[in-house]
Write a structure and sequence with these properties.
This protein is mainly beta and 510 residues long. The chain contains eight helices and 37 strands. The strands form ten sheets. Strands 21, 22, 23, 24 and 25 form a five-stranded antiparallel sheet that branches. A five-stranded mixed sheet has the order 32-33-34-35-37. A four-stranded antiparallel sheet has the order 3-29-28-27, with no helix packed on it. It starts with 7 loop residues before the first strand and ends with a strand.
Length: 510
């Protein structure tokens, strides 16, 4: 049996050492490190990334990029030449690619006195040899890397102090050569990527508004000024913190500070409607303490620097009486219901062909993987052994693909809640030959002739998992959404390849 992929890792620099913490399904409360690395003698790490297998770490100092093994041996070291004697104002940053094969390094060379141009460099993770670089028109103090959860691309936010912030995106091409894209603004701070990879969040450098952008083109989906949260912009502002509580809910931080009072508050944003919601009940000690993990939980820090993981709860927004509650906090997980509730199992396993009672009874074929190198996690199976899989890291809001034993694969939904609604609306989709839009519609009549009580069983299954049957999408809407996803950027980011590295055949032919 193939070992389960390791959980998401969070890295912290504490007391001169590099600590890696696992964030898995059962990891809550104060976290203990699953791996600890000591830098070389005399090195002071300023940024670090630990490999998912816990067998290596890459870290930066003011003058070097170093890779150590778990035993503490130096695998390779790459000097940031020429050596800088400037002690402050520059912090080289690093990140490992999703597949662990490349190291992305931001060099703030201008502030380090190494020249007039910063550089973004890509190194081979095994050898430290350069794969490529881009000279930048920035004079940055530091850069934060964000690795995309599905397609493996890497975002870089470069802070230039009072001059603003620059956001870039890098990818490794099919030939292994890095490709770089710069976004056309210099006044927005990149906060976080959504857990499903469909968007990212930025805050205005002047802290007047928050925006949510589509990945990868950066087009603005929603912008909310500080007034949208009920505050006067004259003495309130948005901090450069927060992020995605789930794929559908973001957290922003509002702050006020004057001679009379100082406080900060977190507010939720319902990303499906673009509207502010309530306040999550957190124990954050300062505006930058809370780090959302995208699965309905977040991290805060203890006094000694150790992270604490907390499942979300929220305070309803009392100023929006009669409005629907925000989707904040950690919703009740669906998978346990799909695996244990009698009506749920009867419909989803028996009719919709999604069996979550024993997903490990069938495993993916050896070599089947995502082209991006991101995680592919099976959580359910069909009667034939086809696999329902989550893409990337996070919780039930991750994209879902189906990998067929017939050599086909395709995106079904962005998140398990959307998949459940699809299967309740059109449980016959798997039985339509060719799965064209016309044949999918024709199958509805055939299914109801064979199963005259289909609608009653569907309604019982919906109620069993907390859904209102009247709120389910129509058959036409569900199929239209499936066609939209199939042709969209998320599907491209979720491409599955076989053992030979070639893409599997598409699941749909809309």
């Amino acid at each position: 049996m193939t070992a389960a992929p390791p959980p998401k890792l969070v890295t912290r620099l504490r007391e001169g050492r590099i600590h890696a913490y696992a964030v898995g399904d059962g990891d809550h409360g104060p976290l203990e490190p699953v791996a600890t690395f000591a830098p070389r003698h005399g090195d002071e790490a300023v940024d670090a990334a630990v490999g998912r297998d816990l067998e290596s770490v890459v870290y930066t100092t003011l003058n070097d990029v170093v890779c150590l093994t778990a035993a503490g041996d130096v695998r390779w070291a790459s000097a940031l030449e020429p050596r800088s004697d400037v002690r402050h104002g520059h912090r080289p940053g690093c990140a490992l690619s999703a597949d662990g094969r490349a190291v992305w390094v931001y060099r703030p060379d201008a502030m380090a006195g190494r020249g007039t141009a910063d550089r973004w460099v890509v190194l081979d993770a095994q050898s430290g040899l350069p794969l490529g670089e881009r000279k930048l028109e920035t004079v940055g103090h530091g850069g934060e890397h964000h690795v995309h959860p599905a397609d493996g691309s890497v975002y870089l936010d470069i802070g230039e102090g009072q001059d603003g912030s620059v956001v870039l995106r890098g990818t490794l091409g099919a030939d292994g050569e890095p490709e770089f894209t710069a976004y056309p603004w210099s006044d927005r701070i990149l906060i976080q990527l959504s857990p499903d990879g469909t968007q990212f969040m930025t805050v205005d450098h002047d802290q007047a508004d928050v925006s949510f952008h589509r990945h990868p083109d950066g087009d603005v989906l929603t912008t909310l000024p500080v007034e949208a949260f009920g505050y006067d912009p004259e003495d309130h502002w948005l901090e450069w913190s927060g992020g995605y509580l789930t794929a559908g809910t973001a957290v922003v931080t509002v702050r006020r500070e004057d001679d009379e009072e100082e406080w900060f508050r977190h507010h939720l944003v319902d990303l499906r409607t673009g509207t502010p919601g309530g306040e999550p009940a957190t124990s954050a000690s300062h505006p930058y303490d809370l780090v959302p993990l995208g699965d309905g939980t977040w991290l805060t820090g203890m006094s000694d620097g150790r992270p604490v993981r907390t499942a979300g709860a929220f305070v309803p927004d009392t100023d929006t009486a009669g409005a629907p509650e925000p989707t904040g906090g950690r919703p009740e997980p669906l998978l346990p219901l799909l695996a244990a509730d009698t009506d749920g199992v009867a419909f989803f396993a028996g009719t919709a062909d999604l069996d979550a009672t024993d997903p490990a009874s069938h495993l993916l074929e050896v070599g089947v993987r995502l082209a991006s190198g991101a995680r592919l996690e099976q959580f359910a199976r069909a009667g034939s052994g086809d696999a329902y899989c989550f893409v990337g890291e996070g919780g039930e809001d991750r994209p879902v693909v189906l990998v067929s034993l017939d050599g086909e694969a395709g995106l079904l939904a962005v998140g398990l809640p959307e998949l459940v609604r699809l299967l309740l609306a059109v449980p016959w989709w798997r039985d339509a030959p060719g799965r064209s839009s016309e044949r999918l519609r024709d199958m509805a009549d055939e299914y109801r002739r064979d199963q005259p009580d289909l609608d009653d069983r569907r309604d019982r299954a919906a109620r069993a998992i907390g859904l209102d049957p009247a709120a389910l999408p129509s058959e036409a809407a569900a199929l239209a959404r499936l066609a939209e996803l199939t042709a969209g950027p998320v599907a491209a980011a979720c491409r599955v390849v076989g053992h030979d590295g070639e893409p599997l055949e598409p699941l749909f032919r809309f």
